[in-house]
Write a structure and sequence with these properties.
The structure holds two protein chains of two kinds.
Chain A: H1 2-26, E1 38-42, H2 46-56, E2 65-70, H3 74-90, E3 99-104, H4 114-135, E4 139-142, H5 148-160, E5 167-171, H6 182-187, E6 193-196, H7 199-204, E7 209-210
Parallel strand pairs in A: 1-2, 1-4, 2-3, 4-5, 5-6, 6-7
Chain B: E1 3-7, H1 14-21, H2 23-31, E2 36-40, E3 51-52, E4 57-61, H3 68-73, E5 76-80, H4 83-91, E6 96-100, H5 109-118, E7 123-126, H6 130-136, H7 150-161
The chains are: A alpha/beta, B alpha/beta.
Chain lengths: 215, 165
């Protein structure tokens, strides 16, 4: 009897979760607003360069800006600081100059073995959840480093648990001409807007957004 | 004084650095009319010894805050296939040779090099084919690179998130 009840309860929770996931993945919220907080995932090297170019085009309505970088990535930290300083210099009168840099362990180092990657990714997940929960951004922007998968999954969870619907925007790196990155393949199904920069990818993934080369 | 700038961005690309600083490569580069070679080696473990003779100078360093200056004074840039390095070089209108690092995951950088080569903006090769390419390439056939348009991104995003104009 208890088993039947437990099974029914588990079934109900599963159905509820599936419904929530479906609702969250399919809702595209266009409420008018004047500003929105943005969480930006900065991976190493070129990923950071590309994402800062994208950010450079965004107005100051995208504030405050929270950056998430891998804990071993000092280069990205200094690029971000220069970027924000330049921005503040160009627009001194603006009050929206707050930005924050958060650090989490990398999901995967370059050339790291796949079995160990499962563990390091789970560890990153464990640390991404409280971060996302604390920041509760309106929008998450990322472009492909492994670090972005735990972050986006955490953002999705926030929506599934009814805490907050976070808009997830993924821009595939300009390096990806014919095939998606691993992060891209995962997040293609989980993001609200999936942007590609070459026509071959738009053909393969018709649901993606193609705006030409944007970096 | 013609200058070649070699960059590996934030990565480690020992094969390229070793290849380009080998004595016969240095000779080749000098014979092509260059008198200065600058190596930006990133995280690499191969660290060639810098030197300066009457006719040729070799400089070596790991990182700088910005590579803009070195790209600007270069007459030729030899780079790994990282997006940042490629785009910065192409946007400065410098001739670019991209060397593919065959040891990277899925070799994802190869796609970009191939596409930009298809469009006539750069030459690409591997470490083993680099000397041959340097000898045979004609830099005057390279075409100008039109920069990307991030404003299309901001216009799109502003619309879908409901920001007031």
């Amino acid at each position: 009897m208890v088993c039947v009840l437990l099974a029914a309860a588990a079934g109900a929770v599963a159905v509820f979760l599936i419904l929530r996931i479906w609702v969250v993945l399919h809702s595209q919220d266009v409420t008018p607003r004047e500003s929105l907080s943005i969480l930006v995932v900065a991976g190493s090297g070129g990923h950071t360069t590309e994402i800062l170019r994208l950010l450079g085009s965004l107005s100051n309505a995208y504030s405050p800006r929270h950056y998430v970088i891998a804990d071993t990535d000092e280069m990205s930290a200094s690029k971000i600081n220069s970027f924000e300083l330049d921005r503040a210099d160009r627009d001194p009168g603006n009050m929206y100059t707050k930005y924050y840099i958060h650090r989490i362990p990398r999901s995967r180092e370059v050339q790291q073995s796949w079995p160990s990657t499962v563990f390091t990714t789970l560890r990153s997940m464990w640390l991404s959840l409280p971060l996302i929960h604390q920041v509760k951004p309106d929008l998450v922007l990322c472009n492909g480093p492994g670090t972005c998968v735990p972050i986006c999954v955490s953002a999705l969870l926030l929506g599934i648990l009814g805490v907050k619907k976070v808009i997830i925007v993924y821009v595939e790196s300009i390096c990806r001409v014919e095939t998606l990155s691993l992060s891209g393949k995962i997040l293609f199904h989980l993001s609200d807007y999936f942007i590609v920069q070459w026509p071959a990818l738009k053909e393969k993934y018709p649901k993606s957004v193609y705006l030409g080369r944007i970096v | 004084m013609k200058c070649v700038f070699v960059t590996v961005g934030t990565t480690s690309f020992d094969d390229l650095i070793a290849c380009v600083s080998a004595p016969d490569s240095l000779q080749k580069i000098e014979s092509l009319g260059y008198s200065r070679l600058i190596l930006q080696i990133g995280r690499g473990t191969v660290v060639p010894e810098p030197f300066s003779t009457e006719s040729f100078t070799l400089d070596v360093y790991r990182y700088k805050d910005s590579l803009k200056e070195d790209i600007q004074k270069a007459d030729l840039v030899i780079s790994h296939a990282g997006a940042g390095s490629c785009l910065e070089t192409l946007e400065k209108g410098k001739p670019l040779v991209v060397v593919i690092n065959e040891k990277l995951m899925n070799n994802h950088q190869l796609e970009l090099a191939k596409q930009l080569h298809k469009e006539g903006h750069l030459f690409y090769c591997t470490c083993s084919t680099l000397p041959g390419l340097l000898q045979s390439m004609d830099l005057s056939t390279l075409k100008c690179y039109p920069p990307g348009q991030p404003e299309k991104f901001s216009a799109f995003l502003d619309k879908v998130v409901g920001l007031q104009k």
